[in-house]
Amino acid sequence: MSGARSAAMAQNRDQAMAHMNATTHRLGYSRALSAAAVLSVAMLSGCAGPHDQLTTGGIPDDYRARHPIIVTEAEQTVDIPVASTDRRLTIAQRDLIRGFAANYISRASGPVYVLSPQGSPNSAAAFQLRNQVRAELTTRGISSSKIINTSYAAAGAGDAAPIRLSFTGTTAITTQCGQWPKDISNDFANQNYYNFGCASQNNLAAQIANPEDLVAPRGMTPIDAQRRNNAIQEYRTTSTTIEDAGDSGF
């Protein structure tokens, strides 16, 4: 009897220990779930908090959008330097006029203004050269009826004021450079500064020969039918073998 009783007591003890272990395991699992839930709530509340200004992601920051090149109407001017002893146009002055005329013909069709200075030491020489400038513009293809002679007030004594040629036409421009709306020494947004890319955009706009190319493409020119026929005929009549290609060194 004592042996049977001992075995029964041992069995009851083992069952009690197994029950305690299972209960402890369930309590530990429940506590782990509770801790995970608390951590998730804390993370979500952190996302809803104030944004960290030092953290940046894929922020759009394109200088081409900040300094866009636009096609607009603007005044085009060329200054022709004139000495007080000049009596006729020099080769360099004629080159300036030729370039101005070519620019006008490609960009505008309105009036051309020839402005001569008044009140400067070279005003007499500029007045004498004005008619020569007008004749040079006419020679370069600008109608005489579109050329308007006028004058402007020079700064005063000692100023070698130029003859100024002017017309209004389409041109490609962008925003003015040198603007600093923010203090870059106190900016931690990890973005390029406002003036970044402005000079590159201005240089690109100045190099565009025909601003209308930014608006729409030009029409295609007619094909060279003779050249096309020659190329097709050569393709049809010429036969090249593998041996010929090897002998040619390719």
From TrEMBL:
<dbReference type="InterPro" id="IPR013361">
    <property type="entry name" value="Pilus_CpaD"/>
</dbReference>
<dbReference type="Pfam" id="PF09476">
    <property type="entry name" value="Pilus_CpaD"/>
</dbReference>
<protein>
    <submittedName>
        <fullName>CpaD family pilus assembly lipoprotein</fullName>
    </submittedName>
</protein>
<dbReference type="InterPro" id="IPR019027">
    <property type="entry name" value="Pilus_biogenesis_CpaD-related"/>
</dbReference>
<keyword id="KW-0449">Lipoprotein</keyword>
